[in-house]
Design a protein that fits this description.
The complex is a heterodimer.
Chain A: H1 2-11, H2 14-55, H3 61-110
Chain B: H1 2-33, H2 40-57, H3 64-87, H4 92-116, H5 121-143
Helix pairs in contact in B: 2-3, 2-5, 3-4, 4-5
Classes of the chains: A mainly alpha, B mainly alpha.
Chain lengths: ~110, ~150
């Protein structure tokens, strides 16, 4: 049965796709952890720097609050960057999966 | 015998048609999930503003009135960048980045400058660094989009 053959060929791709996704998820997880820690440390360091400026009376309390709020907005922008980049990588992965699927299916159809 | 052969042939063609349709349908549905593509004008705009906005902020030791035209120009560019990002399909993270830079960072700074007339350099410097770093994050997000 030709469709049985194609089913078999497509089922054979499962492990390849699982491997591709597995690599992507592991990489993303590690990148997320690393980025989150780096961002948290940067935020902490900057807030300490602003507090020092306040302590030395180089900036006012109002300035200090403004800078902390601004730094928090910057953190959100940077976190969104990671989401956007991960989505872009996922797009590349889905494209690879589509290409693999199309190539294998078309080859299998041609061989019928 | 002829009928059996003919039935086998049509089953084969049906199978080919079925799998080809399934493959096309699957690729179309996955393609619908793919995010925004690389957008050269958006990248150029982000790169331009990552220089222009902090450079304007560093002028806040001087009078706002003297720099009002430039401030309005930067705000207009930020509005356009946000509108462009928001109008681009599958681009909500980048649109939100632009909204945050405009509404939570640059606009409040310019409002403060306008109200106070001039600002102190010890306040300006970290505020300008924040905006530069945030815009650099947008530049990186734009560069990472698939071409």
């Amino acid at each position: 049965m030709p469709n049985k053959k194609i089913e078999e060929v497509i089922s054979g791709l499962d492990n390849q796709i699982v491997d591709m996704v597995g690599q992507f998820v592991r990489r993303r997880k590690a990148a997320y952890e690393e980025a989150a820690i780096r961002l948290k440390n940067n935020l902490r360091d900057d807030v300490i720097r602003y507090a020092e400026l306040l302590e030395k009376k180089k900036i006012s309390e109002e300035d200090f609050e403004f800078l902390v709020r601004g730094r928090s907005a910057q953190l959100k922008v940077e976190l969104l960057e990671h989401v956007s980049v991960s989505k872009s990588k996922f797009d590349l992965l889905t494209e690879d999966v589509v290409k693999l699927l199309l190539k294998t299916t078309i080859t299998a159809i041609a061989a019928l | 015998m002829k009928t059996i052969l003919s039935a086998g042939k049509s089953t084969r063609w049906f199978s080919i048609f079925f799998w080809a349709t399934a493959a096309i349908g699957l690729s179309l549905s996955i393609a619908a999930c793919v995010g925004a593509r690389f957008d050269k004008p958006a990248l150029d705009n982000a790169t331009m503003l990552s220089d222009k906005a902090p450079a304007l902020m560093e002028k806040a030791t001087k009078s706002y009135n003297d720099n009002e035209a430039e401030a309005n120009g930067v705000l207009k560019s930020l509005d356009e960048a946000y509108e462009h990002a928001a109008a681009t399909k599958k681009n909500k993270e980048v649109a939100e980045q632009w909204r945050l830079v405009r509404d939570d960072m640059v606009k409040p700074f310019l409002t403060r400058w306008k109200e106070k007339g001039k600002l102190d350099k010890d306040f300006i410097k970290p505020a300008a660094v924040q905006v530069r770093d945030a815009l650099t994050a947008i530049v990186r997000a734009e560069k990472a989009k698939p071409k």
